[in-house]
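The authors assume throughout that readers already know how a fold can be written as discrete tokens. Each protein is reduced to its one-letter sequence and a matching series of backbone shape codes. I therefore recommend that a typical entry be quoted early in the introduction. For illustration, here is how one protein appears when written out as sequence plus structure tokens:
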Amino acid sequence: MKSEFEIAITQLSSDRNLAPNIIIDAIEKALASAYKRNFNSMQNVVAKLDPHTGQATIYVQKLVVEEVEDEETQLALAEARKTKATAQIGDVLEFEMTPKNFGRIAAQTAKQVIMSKIRDAERDSVYLEYQDRAGEIINGIVRNIDARTHAITISLGKAEAILDPAEQIPGEHYRFNQRLRVYLMEVERGTGHSPQITVSRTHKGLLRRLLEMEVPEIYNGVVEIKSVAREPGSRSKVAVAAIQPNIDPVGSCVGPRGVRIQNIVNELNGEKIDVVAWSSDMSVYISNSLSPAKVTAVYMNEAEKTAKVVVPDKSLSLAIGKEGQNARLAAKLTGWRIDIRSETEAADDQERLAAEAAAAAAQAQEQQAAREAAARLLAEATASLDEEEGLKEPQEELAEPTTAVEDESLSQEPLVEWPEPEPEAAVEEITEPIDEETTILAAVEPEPVPEAPTSKTLEEEVIEEPSEDEEGEHKENKPARKDKSKQRILVYDERLGRVVSKKRRKPGRSGGWSYDEDEE
């Protein structure tokens, strides 16, 4: 016969959906914590509970060491062998330390701790249960609707889930105690009494799971769902393929008279569902994805994953759908960008493309001709330059380098040869009759000259004044006047780099003769 303690543990484990050993373990931990709190103990305390009688016993654990550093947690080897003869260093010995009045005190103190431990164990149990069910459909009951955030709390039995407004089907209304099928998205531990569970009604996984539940061929693996594209509350497309031959995948999903697919439509609040056949040929797959419209031709670009689809003129609006919904769902289903054109538009585009191709070809031919002409001109210019350089080279070899010096002042003077410079300065004495029989000596010391324009040089010239006899003749014919003629000499000016003519002046206050530069 079970004791009252066993009956209470059994009832508690049934209500909390927990194993009895989990509850007993939580009670033992709570009793050990209560003992430490009441008796201010820093020892290693362990509580043990009899599962039949409910009797609690407190034990203090001590470690056997050679030298004791902490008396509350350690015990010397000699003392340990008094209690246990076979004790060795490193063993842990337990000593009973149960107080006399521990029953009532422990019950009151450990009550809150016990309930907290049980709640933690319950939360962990729920988390482990629903964590493995992520990605499945679960049934729930609407328990609360938040008027401010419009979030819905759904009771799952042991736990509660949250249906956010973003995960609700647009236009769908919910009421209290309404039963719903929701898609379990994720489970988190959370910090409350139960884990945080997030569910959805708009996830495309919900449609996939509903098809598995309603269509036995999909559940058994005979028909496979390849892709799902969904706009919640409006329309969805599902691509299916048969794994075994001689099976119609679309007919299996639709069911006799559309019963199977109609059940799913009712569950999703009237959402339209198009079931299309999947194909390994992408052009056929794109054509099927635009159902119910008929496709005339498909032109694909594998590199950019784009397709141009041609449909009859009367089927253009059907292929595009309301606000482009059909084309948008087909693009999501196939993963390709689809451009839909009517037959008339396609013909116009074809003519335009042909004209552009012809114009591009003509332009390419013109550019090629221009490049060829430019290449020929460049070759001719290169050849002519090579010929001119070949003619110039012999002439340059025959020509001798000469340097010409031109000067307007020297054009009027006769060119004379300039003597080679002597090792020592050459001095020439020039005497001319000047006032009162004054004789001037002009010493000219030629300097080395840079490269002369020609082999000819200039010689010094002395401009002589008229003699005494000529002066007498002039005196007879003309009245006597003072002769103001001056001595002129030719000298080489290093600064100018040429021969210049200079004239003498009368001595000034500073004494000595001075010369003014005159014309060459």
Notes: The first strand starts at residue 44 and ends at 49. The two ends are 156 Å apart (CA to CA). Confidence is low (pLDDT under 50) at residues 398-418, 422-447, 449-486. The chain has 14 helices and 18 strands.
